[in-house]
């Protein structure tokens, strides 16, 4: 990777408190003259400039000596822009990034609940589910249009039938969201879907299987919409964070990290193993909000309540839960789908847990 040194160090320029805009611009121009890009973060107290590109092309001492610079510092991390250490240089220490989606704040004091079916199946299905998840206390509506499936012979989502069908399904998702005051989210399975989906949704979801697709990450990032970014089931936490940086270097830091389970050991009773330690670990490493998806981790509905409670207790900024008004008839992931009344119970209990644990 060209952005970081082999040791995983990254450079950052910290400006003096009274540095002028001209001085900041001069440094940006200097960084660009060497073929790198600059990321300027203006905080309440100071401005910092991150280098993006091959940092070895430019002399550190040269930058440190430019007018307005307080210091040029090394950060020991392979993921600079999203790291807590970096954000602490310009944000209030310990602050999690708050991502605003309509009236919803992800990363704020209250957990946020994303709910909806695995797949969009019909207009009526989306209207019914939207109404009921709203009543249950959910904030955001989800529904898949392009489904990643293990079998080429199973239902791939309504989008697989063609562009018109995809657009129609997206319009149902959006209509249901609009009618019940819920921002909407769907998964982008490939680069060809980015432009279409960006026209309809408030949050763009990158699924576990695409966590490593750098070209997709960049293309989605450039839409400048919040991204719900899922951990691959075989990825370490460090890899997950390192690849999130590919979204951030495109100038989009509205990234919601989502833990959804990793490959289980031996004969398992669950679809994946929910790695709850990832929640507090990621909160230490990054200032991005961290959500948990208990549905795909468990693969069975009888565990959703327990795993949801545990995730909120571990400090998750919210949950993504698959919900269907008629789980038995769901076209995809029927075994893990809960009903809206069950969702209401999850949310009301999680709200109590969130109050008990210090989420600072
Ligand atoms: C999903 O959320 O619909 C999904 C397919 O999840 P994951 O990418 O975590 O498997
Ligand atoms: Mn699913």
User: How many helices in DSSP terms?
Assistant: 12
Which ligands are bound?
phosphoenolpyruvate, manganese (II) ion
Briefly note the structural class of the backbone.
alpha/beta
C-alpha Rg (nearest Å): 21 Å
Tell me, what's the shape?
globular
What does this structure look like?
- The protein has 360 residues and is of the alpha/beta class.
- Helix content is 33%, strand content 18%.
- It is built from twelve helices and 14 strands.
- The chain has helices spanning 21-33, 60-64, 84-87, 123-136, 163-180, 194-198, 214-221, 237-248, 278-285, 294-298, 304-313, 340-356, and strands spanning 9-15, 37-42, 47-52, 69-76, 99-101, 104-106, 112-116, 140-142, 184-187, 203-206, 227-230, 255-259, 290-292, 318-322.
- Helix 4 runs parallel beside helix 12, helix 7 (214-221) packs across helix 8 and helix 11 (304-313) packs parallel to helix 12 (340-356).
- The model is unreliable at 1-6 (pLDDT under 50).
- It binds phosphoenolpyruvate (PEP) and manganese (II) ion.
- Residues 118, 144, 148, 187, 207-209, 230, 260, 293, 296 line the site of phosphoenolpyruvate.
- Residues 118, 296, 322, 332-333 line the site of manganese (II) ion.
Give a short overview.
The protein is of the alpha/beta class and about 350 residues long. It has helices spanning about 20-35, 60-65, 85, 125-135, 165-180, 195-200, 215-220, 235-250, 280-285, 295-300, 305-315, 340-355, and strands spanning about 10-15, 35-40, 45-50, 70-75, 100, 105, 110-115, 140, 185, 205, 225-230, 255-260, 290, 320.
